[in-house]
Each structure stands twice: as structure tokens, then as C-alpha cells.
Design goal:
globular; five-stranded mixed β-sheet; alpha+beta; homodimer; 18 helices; about 450 residues; eight-stranded mixed β-sheet; about 20% strand; 16 strands
Chain lengths: ~450, ~450
């Protein structure tokens, strides 16, 4: 009967130490979200498939986890689909619900569904897991958390400036040195206009993105392969070559895109955002990256991406402005801008740089040794007083061998052990042992509280 | 193209106000769990169906949400099952995973899978949603949170005493007056032994449970209907009639069950637990209830149930001792005791009694009015200083009409509004308005911090 238990591939158990570290990240992000006036919402793990399908492209539809209808799911299903092995159409007949794939589509659904209760601009944050039936690999999971903050119902660039400060504050608290890369979708549109190939904009950004890795010649070869005319490639060269400080690069970009109305607007927006955050002061390094696209079809203005400086890892945060979040659900004209923190990658960065504070260890502060019923009785009274003073404390539940009990305290890195034997009982005191220094002293509860709280 | 969006029945969106209230409950429980030395874990939303199936009875198997295998799920499935409408067997061929139904089975799986990394006794807590394909009705959802704390690997009654104190502390912090009902599975076994009908123990407890509602005569009639002999019913009468204080009732029970070894042991355990918590002092009312069973097949010792005193609602917390949590996964001899807080019911109690503290409202403290680029620039500098002082603050992102901006602050119950117009800019001050009293004064950032923090 006994099974050897395991969990589905791509999913994880989180042990107490991992939880303490993850909570440290989530708590930090949550606290900054609140400091910036964002309000938390939660949406169900399951959404109707009609809400999810078609929102993430054909590939995304395949990566949705679908939930089998309860009861006799075959009733009403077209059995000919089974005969024809048409599992795709059969799916839509036997599954009505799916697990959320990200927090953006559920948020858009939420905004439309609750629009009459909401106050716009609506500043929401959401920290919940999402699920993707992706092939699991190192750093890619089938269940992972997203931490999103969005402002919808306002097209002011003040929101971009706020979000960049928020990102700066989160990583400053986490002690991670970051570079924030900026771009603007309108600049990309301007470039496409300039070279007369608006339909090639994705090919262009994909190629440009590789400059550092493969060099300008290979990028140009790739652009040719992707069907760009020689003329277009020539026109693109000065854009690929822009250089210098952010303001120098903005200047070059401005003159290069002067003939494109949308391109010029993009440069103007970038300028406003950059000068806005620079006036307020940013600890992060700011960078302008015209190859930055991040899901181009989605963003319409500012595009943001964050990388850690001291460890090689993909982007740890990203976001941008979108003009039509809720259009697909029948509510148009809702512009917004948002940011998404990648908790798993941030976790990896903190691990790699060993940046967890002691508090993130989060353990019990004192353990009482258990010598039997009478001693445990006295210990539990003292225990209660320690807890009333806010000290996380426990008693070893069994009167096991001393060695075993001390081993438990040791393994859990509990910093103090309290010993209440016969002698201590008569004096109503405890022998308090510091597990790090080995020091011990006979103290009252009040004295113990003072020592432990120090 | 536009869809009218909705969410699956039995699921819920949580708005910012609901989130603040729920977080107040979860934070309170989490803090007390930690104070008592419990360590947090999390397990995946999806478990293998082989882990979940057969653990909750036949009915439970039906209530599991099953996840359709990715890709061509029909490959390898027996199509004859479709022809025969045998959806039950087909399910096991097209679904490998399901959503967790509770936190107990995943915890048992976790303990077995990670047993070599764990320190026993292992005190874990877990706060996560679970999913059940139940028929939705008032107060019953298809997605809801469980908050569980368990100690496994120790059969000491110290654990029971600790858990009862923990329950007392949680509800004391939440300001909910509670009654804790206690029973012991061994007492029930003793009663069954006494009346010579061990297989009737469930029928007996179900009937006894109705005494208050339907009276002793109807209970006896029901027992007869359920197949109890007249002799057995006669033997049961003194047990149904036990009365008085807890210690009086324990005494009566002791003499009634004196001939049953297991029954006597149950009474002894109850005595130890009751006197253990009474010595330490309990704010809750303690009650002995021999009809308390709570999933009898599962518990083997102490059984605990908590009810709110000031509002009529089902049990808001429950738990007990089990002897063989992990046997089904091949690890026997792991005894444990646990408690589960019903967050949704606690939420309903707090709402009914209006017991939420102001902090649970959790809103932004100050909003800066936006008069345009220059003023917003100065405002954002002040805003940054307020946030550096730990004050949750925001700026209205658009230079909208004053009325609209004030309406926003009002709707979100933001207690202070800061106005930085031309005059204020030149003085580097803000006009700070208290939205409750209507008072306003021209103050520096430092003064504002002091006023808002008061």
C-alpha cells in the first residue's frame, strides 16, 4: 500500500529556511508597495478558460493548466473528437477552468468586473503564484510567484517616475545593486517608421539586442536575413551606434528621430522620466537601451527592465506602460503602467551574494529543556511569560535524553536554552545558556527576558 | 470580441478592504504560530493524484479538482472508456495531477519525502489555499485558506497544552470570546466498548451531538433506529446524563468508564490536558463534550473544537491527535497533534461583531494634490521624505480638477491631504489638511511627519 511520495515536476516544497528567506523578499516588496500607496488585491487561482484563452498567444494557450470539469465531464462532449484524436477541441468541451498564467490578465478581468466599485486611478498590488505548463529547467518552474504593482486609469508620466523610485527602494532595502534599463515603445515605432519597415520592428529589436554578444557585423547580417533592405540597414546604423551618457544618447536619438512624430514623442517621454527620477535621486544605475522590447505587442510607452549588477542572471524585474489593458474585456481607454518583481530570480541573487539578514532566519529564540512533568510545569509558566514579552519560545515536548534535546536546539539554531531542574524550580529561576558563547547563568524570568531581547 | 468577464462559481476576488481584513487575521495567527516556535512551510498547489486519491474517502475523491495532462492527453488513453461513458477510469488516464484538498495530506507527504532533513519533533505551520469541487453555498467556497499548525514526532500531552494555549492567544488577540470543546477518541472507544457495540461509535456520536437540539427521548429513538439494542441504550443513559463542571464530569466519566482500559486512559489524558491548561490560565471557556468526534477515523486521542460565544456560526477552529499521519506513505509511528484555523469563518465572526481594528484598514496616510509639472516636482521631493520616514504616501498622478482629486482621497479614506501650490512652493512648505477634522495648516516636511505620525 505504501507509496513513495513525490511532487509534480517543476513544482517545489519550501522548507522553513526557504520560507523565511522568501518571506523576507515578499515582506520587503509588500512594505514598499504600501509605502507608495498601492492596495493589495487577490484573485482566484482558477479563472474561466474564456478569460485566459487567446491572451498569451497560441503558445500560451498550450501552456495553460486546464482543470477537468467535475462529475461526468464526457456528458455533452462530442465523442467524434476522441475518434479523430482532436484533443484541442475536446479540451474546450471537457474543461471550463484553468489556472492563472500571470497576474495581468486576472487584474484586467478584475478591473472590468469591479469597475463600478473602483476609484481611478487605481493603484493595486498583487502577490500570488501563477502556473505554466512549461518544460521545467534550472530556474524555470511550473509554479512560481509574481509580485505586481500597477496604476491604471492615468497616463501621467508621474506614475513611471513613482514606479522607478519604488523599484530603487525595493532593491536598496534588499541591498542588491541594480541597473535599470529604460526604453519607450514609441521610440521603437519611430525607428520602424524611419527605416520604412514598421512590420519588422520585432526582428529589429531581437537583432539589436544581440549587439553586445555577436557584434555589429553579425547583427547586420541577421537583419538582412530577416528581410531588411540594404537601405533600411544603412539607415539603422547611426541608431545602433548611439553612445555616451543617457542625456547624450537622448540627444542623438532626438536628432535621429526628428522626422518621426511618434519617435520624437517617445524621446520626449524618456527625457521627462529620466529627468524626473534624476532630480529625486536614484541609487540604481540608469541606462537607456533602444533594444529593450519585452513583449512588444503589449507595451505602448515606457519599457523598464532591471538587472542585478553583481551576479549574472536574467532580468529580475520588468514592466512598462500599456494603453489598452482591458479592451479585450470590453472596457477601452484604460491606460496603465506596471512593474513585476521576479521573486524566484531575486531569491537566487540573494543566495548567490549571501545577502540575507539574520532576521530572515526567523527561528525560535529560547528552548526549555524538558525534565519531566513537574519541571515542565514550572517551565511552561516561565515560557508563557517569555511569550507574553514577545519572545518566540518553545519547550521540548518529551522528557527525552538531554543530548537529544540539546541536539534539537542546536540543529534549529535556537540561540538560548533554558534549563529548569529541581534546584532551579525551588528558586523559581532558570539556568539560561547562550548556545553561541556557551555562557550560562541562573536568572529570573525578568532577567532572562532582558538578556534574550538584547 | 468583448466578453463580459466573470470568475468560476464558488471562487472570490478580494478587494483592498477585504485583503486588509484577511491579512489582519493571517498576520495575527502567523505571529502567534511563530511565538510558539512553529516553522512555516509551503507545498505546491498541485500534487500528484496518487498522493491525493483515496485519502478523503470516495466522496473526497470526487471533490478533487483534477488537472488535464498537457499536450495530447488522449495519447495512450483507452478510447473504449469514452464509448462506455466510464469517465471515472478515463480521468485517471488523462489526469496525473490535482489541486490540494487540504493541508494535512500534503504535510504528511512532505514529512515522508523530507524526513531525513527534518528535526523531530517537527513543529510546522502552513497557511495556503485549498480547493474543493463542492457545491458552493453561503459560507462554503471552492477555494479557501487553511491555517494549520502541527507537531509531529511526539506523543507528549505537553503538545496539546501548548496548542490550547496557542488557540487561546490567537482569539484573545482577535478579541473573540470563545468556548473550546474537548473530547478524547479513547473515551469514545471506551463508551463503544462499554455498550458492546464498537462498530456503532459513529452512530452514537452523531445521535449524542443532537441532544441539545432534539432532546434525550428523540436521541434514544434515533439510536434505536440506528440499530442499537435496548440494553446498549440503557447502558448509555448515564453517559448522556453527565453534568456539572468539567472536573465533576470527568469524575462521573471516570467511574462510568472504569471497566474499560482504553476509556480510562482517555479520561486520564483529558484530566492531564485540562489541569495543564488550567494551571497556566486560559481566557477561553473550556468545555467537555463527549459527543465531539470531528472525523473520527482520523483522530486517535485529544479532539478539539472552538466556537465563538457571541455569534451563531459553526466551529471556527478544530484539531486533535492522530497516531499514524504518514503510514499511508510508508512511514509509520509518526504521532502528531494539530490545529486548523478556519480563516473564512473567523472573517465572518469579526465582520458580524465589527471587531476590526483601525490598522486593518491599512490605507495611504497622505495624498499630495497635483497642480501641474512644477508643483508636482516639489511635491514629489516632499513625498520622498515622508516615505523615508515610513509614512505611506502618494501623489495624485494627473493635474485633474481639485474636486476630483479630493474625491479620490475621500473615497479611499486617506486621512491627510497635502497641497503644494505656488505659494507653498516658494516657502518650501505644504498646506496639510486633516480630512477628518477639516483643520489645515502650513507646515514644513518635518512638521508634517510629526503631525501625521501622531
Amino acid at each position: 500500500m505504501a507509496q513513495k511520495p513525490s511532487i509534480p515536476k517543476g513544482t517545489r516544497d519550501f522548507s522553513p529556511i526557504e520560507m523565511a528567506r522568501r518571506n523576507y523578499i515578499f515582506d520587503t516588496i509588500r512594505e514598499v508597495f504600501k509605502l507608495y500607496g498601492f492596495k493589495q488585491i487577490e484573485t482566484p487561482a482558477m479563472e474561466n478558460l474564456s478569460t485566459l484563452m487567446g491572451k498569451y498567444g497560441e503558445e500560451g494557450d498550450k501552456l495553460l493548466f486546464k482543470i477537468l470539469n467535475s462529475g461526468d465531464f464526457l456528458r455533452g462532449a462530442d465523442k467524434a473528437l476522441v475518434e479523430n484524436d482532436d484533443y484541442v477541441h475536446l479540451t474546450s468541451q471537457i474543461c471550463e477552468k484553468g489556472l492563472r498564467y500571470d497576474l495581468t490578465v486576472p487584474f484586467a478581468r478584475y478591473v472590468v468586473q469591479h469597475r463600478n466599485e473602483l476609484q481611478f486611478p487605481f493603484k493595486r498590488f498583487q502577490i500570488q503564484p501563477v502556473w505554466r505548463a512549461d518544460r521545467p529547467q534550472k530556474g524555470r518552474y511550473r509554479e512560481f510567484y509574481q509580485c505586481d504593482a500597477d496604476i491604471v486609469g492615468s497616463d501621467s508620466l508621474v506614475n513611471e517616475i513613482e514606479l522607478l523610485q519604488l523599484v530603487d527602494e525595493v532593491f536598496s532595502r534588499l541591498k542588491i545593486n541594480i541597473t535599470i534599463k529604460l526604453n519607450n515603445r514609441k521610440v521603437l515605432a519611430g525607428i520602424a517608421e524611419l527605416i520604412g519597415a514598421p512590420e519588422k520592428i520585432i526582428d529589429i529589436t531581437v537583432a539589436i539586442d544581440k549587439i553586445d554578444k555577436i557584434g555589429i557585423d553579425n547583427v547586420n547580417a541577421e537583419l538582412r536575413e530577416r528581410g531588411l533592405s540594404d537601405e533600411a540597414i544603412v539607415t539603422l546604423q547611426p541608431i545602433l551606434a548611439i553612445d555616451g551618457s543617457i542625456s547624450e544618447r537622448l540627444e542623438q536619438l532626438e536628432s535621429l528621430l526628428a522626422t518621426s512624430e511618434i519617435g520624437a514623442l517617445g524621446v520626449k517621454e524618456l527625457r521627462e522620466v529620466v529627468s524626473g527620477v534624476e532630480v529625486l535621486g536614484l541609487r540604481a544605475t540608469l541606462d537607456l537601451d533602444v533594444s529593450l522590447a519585452r513583449g512588444l505587442n503589449y507595451y505602448t510607452g515606457t519599457i523598464i527592465e532591471v538587472k542585478a549588477q553583481d551576479v549574472v542572471i536574467g532580468s529580475i524585474t520588468g514592466g512598462g506602460r500599456y494603453d489598452n489593458l482591458t479592451g479585450v474585456f470590453g472596457l477601452s481607454g484604460v491606460s496603465g503602467v506596471g512593474i513585476s518583481f521576479g521573486a524566484d530570480r531575486i531569491y537566487d541573487v540573494l543566495n548567490a551574494l549571501d545577502l540575507y539578514p539574520d532576521e530572515a532566519k526567523d527561528s525560535t529564540r529560547v528552548m526549555f529543556v524538558n525534565f519531566g512533568v513537574a519541571e515542565a510545569g514550572t517551565s511552561m509558566k516561565m515560557l508563557k511569560e517569555l511569550r507574553n514579552a514577545g519572545i518566540a519560545a518553545e519547550i521540548y515536548p518529551d522528557a527525552a535524553k538531554m543530548k537529544k534535546q540539546m541536539g534539537y536546539a542546536d540543529a534549529l539554531a535556537i540561540p538560548f536554552v533554558a534549563i529548569v531542574g529541581e534546584t532551579e524550580m525551588t528558586q523559581n529561576k532558570m539556568m539560561l545558556k547562550n548556545m553561541v558563547t556557551g555562557e550560562q547563568s541562573l536568572v529570573s524570568v525578568e532577567e532572562a527576558i532582558e538578556i534574550i531581547k538584547k
